[in-house]
Amino acid sequence: MLRNSVFIASMGLTAFVVIWGVLDTQGLAAFAGSFVNVVFQSRGWFVMLTVSTLLLSCAYLAFSPYGAVRLGNDRDEPEFSTFSWLTMMFAAGMGVGLLFYGVAEPVEHYMVLSEQMKPGLAASGALFVTLFNWGLHAWAIYGLVGLVIAYFGFRRGLPQMLSTPFRAVFGDKGWPVTLGWLVDVLAIYAIAIGLAGSVAMGVFQVQSGFEQLFDFQNTGMGLSLAIFAVLCAAYFIPLLRELGQGMALLSNAAICITIGLLLYILLTGPTGFLMNTVTNTLGVYLSNLIPHGLRTFSFWDDAIQGWYTSWTLNYMAWWLAWAPFVGVFIARISKGRTIREFLMGVLLAPTAFSLFWFGILGAMGFYQAHHGAYDAAQVRTDINASTFALLKTLPLPQLTSVATMLSAMLFIITSVVSATYVLAMFSAKGDQNPPVKLKLVWGAILSALALVMIITDSISAVRAIIALSANPFVYIVLLLLVCLLKALKSEKTAAGSRRNQ
Question: How far apart are alpha carbons 454 and 74 in whole angstroms?
Fold first, then answer.
């Protein structure tokens, strides 16, 4: 482990951020915020072109003859059932964020857009933008990275590292080796930063749930640290076991609770109105999907520019920061599936769930706010409590609040377990069954980094720090796409030559 230069360099970079965050938390947050603003202002257009290119490339690969290529040997079968595969993928990729932003994001978008257009159009636009931020573009980032790693790992039998495609396609000497080493280091760093931010966000939400449920006042950092300690104890236990033993069970439980909560809100709320909203949102989403992916709001005022930057651009950076972790994890659990099956599952299933989740919770927020039962302005004063405040307007709020907190904690645990697995795998040079010792080391590092995020006590600061780590991957994912296309073309050419012999 100590002879692994990738491990040492990435550990040093991550430790630097941890130390900086402990010694000067506000300084780190301020630097991340200012740097990310400069990047978004100068290269926001490139970010949107990149994610739109990835989505179109995924569609091409899924429906082209390459879609029949199996990720593994031609006779390999999937290791996990389709349901477990989808739940593990979803829990690792977005999980706790859905619980955190389910109500808050559509309501926040509505408050901004209602100043520019009529209320009906603002509500429809708010749900569309929310789904856009969490839908196909986001999962195209994950899907493309996961597909590249799965193809070279299972089809070519090479180590599952982000550096592998560069070495396999461009050679194992000179600049591909240097570039690959740098990519691996940055990937580990981005995974650690992105996951720690998600843990902090989950802690903030669970804390708010406790405050709402037990009517606590001014709990401050004490309750945050107590919840964090419980989570640390909970996610270190699964690290001692094999991936399939605990991860599938935890993911299935988290998804089942979340689906149950979604159905409860649908059935106890104005069901017809909610389903009409979901259907309308789907229509608006499909008709505006590609054009909105190229919108940069160049001719709008500073308020709209700031809204676009802090939400859509920030989300795309967030997904890019998570891409090495989620992509590699999805690749690890996808052996035996075809490229078409892989991409259809990765893109469509999570997007469909997000459609129902945000459509129902967002519409419920609009409905209750219209009838005076929900204070929409709360998303700006206490975003952590927005979901729990909505649940208070429905029957059995104590039960649904407990279910939300439990689901959030399970999502956090599954994310940490899957992330530490990927980090340990990278540190072990692509070993698909990394040593427990490595997983525990990374679990401790993630805990320290998450603690720094919690100390900032600011969601905006957490998001800025995450976006800071994502900057290099805007370019890396495009290089990975080039490697995959070249490798698939080479395989097709080789297969044609064998048939002609």
Answer: 47
Task: Give the C-alpha separation, 194 to 174, whole Å.
Answer: 31
Asked if 408 and 99 count as a contact pair (C-beta separation under 8 A), the reply is yes
Distance CA(449)–CA(74), nearest Å, equals 42
3-state secondary structure 197-259: HHHHHHHHHHHHHHHHHHCCCCCHHHHHHHHHHHHHHHHHCHHHCCHHHHHHHHHHHHHHHHH
Record the pTM. 0.87
Q: Which amino acid is at 314?
A: N
Residue with tokens 């064998």: 498
Q: What torsion do the CA atoms of 206, 221, 34, 198 make, to the nearest 10 degrees?
A: -30
Alpha helices in 73-174 (DSSP H): 82-93, 95-101, 104-113, 119-134, 136-150, 164-170
Nearest to 279 by CA among 451, 382, 127: 127
Sign of the torsion angle spanned by Cα atoms 465, 471, 474, 476:
negative
Strand pairing partners for 338?
Answer: 70
pLDDT reported for residue 235: 72
pLDDT tens string 452-464: 778 776 666 666 7
Residue-level pLDDT at 268? 94
Which residue ranges in the chain fall short of pLDDT 50?
1-2
Residue pair 410/400 in contact by the 8 Å Cβ criterion: no
Q: For residue 362, give every residue at least 6 positions away whose Cβ sits within 8 Å of its Cβ, in sequence order, or none.
A: 102, 103, 105, 106, 107, 126, 127, 130, 277
Task: Put residue 338 in one of left, alpha, beta given phi > 0 → left and psi -120 to 50 → alpha.
Answer: beta
Distance CA 148, CA 480 (A): 7
Neighbouring CB atoms inside 10 A of 479's CB total 17
Helices (H), 333-396: 339-370, 378-381, 386-391
Tokens linked to 299: 């001719």
Q: Please give the pLDDT value at position 186.
A: 85
